[in-house]
Design goal:
Mean pLDDT: 92
Keywords: Transferase
Number of helices: 4
Low-confidence stretches: none
Cofactor: Mg(2+)
Radius of gyration: 18 Å
Protein name: Di-trans,poly-cis-decaprenylcistransferase
Helix content: 25-40%
Organism: marine sediment metagenome
Structural class: mainly alpha
GO biological process, one term: polyprenol biosynthetic process
C-alpha cells in the first residue's frame, strides 16, 4: 500500500478492519501484482528451504508450491471476472485460477457495479464445474 495515495490507503485499511471477521466471500484486489513474479518468489522460498535442509526435494508437490504463494492462506478463486471485454488473464493468479470459471464483461472496471456482479454470479451458478476433467 506504500505507493498508493493516502486517502485510498486509509479506505483500504478501513475496509480490511470492517471485514476481518468475514468468513464467506473473499475478494482479492491485486495492485502491482504479477503471477509470474509470485511463482518465482515461491520457488526461491522453496529453494531456500531445501538449502536449509528444512525440505527434501522429493517432498515437493503441488501443495508445496501452493504453500509458498502469496495467497497460501486463501482458497483458490472459483470465478475470475474479466472486465473491459479482455479475453486474457493478464498474468493474474496464474497458479490459483487453474480451475476457476471465467466470466468476461464488456463493462470497464470503474463502471462495474453491483448489478454486473450479480449477473456474473448468476451465470456462474448455472455452470457445471469440471475442474479440468470431462463430464
Amino acid at each position: 500500500l506504500n505507493n498508493l495515495p493516502d486517502s485510498l490507503t486509509e479506505k483500504m485499511k478501513e475496509l480490511h478492519e470492517s471485514s476481518k471477521r468475514n468468513n464467506k466471500l473473499i475478494l482479492n484486489i491485486a495492485i502491482n501484482y504479477g503471477g509470474r513474479a509470485e511463482i518465482v518468489d515461491a520457488l526461491k522460498s522453496i529453494t531456500l528451504k531445501i538449502e536449509e535442509k528444512k525440505l527434501n526435494i522429493e517432498e515437493i508437490n503441488e501443495n508445496t508450491i501452493r504453500d509458498n504463494l502469496y495467497t497460501h492462506n486463501l482458497p483458490d478463486p472459483d470465478l475470475l471476472i474479466r472486465t473491459a471485454g479482455e479475453m486474457r488473464i493478464s498474468n493474474f493468479m496464474i497458479w490459483q485460477i487453474a480451475y476457476a470459471e471465467l466470466w468476461v464483461t464488456p463493462v470497464f472496471w470503474p463502471d462495474f457495479d453491483e448489478n454486473n456482479l450479480i449477473e456474473a454470479i448468476r451465470n456462474f451458478q448455472k455452470r457445471v464445474r469440471k475442474y479440468g476433467g470431462k463430464i
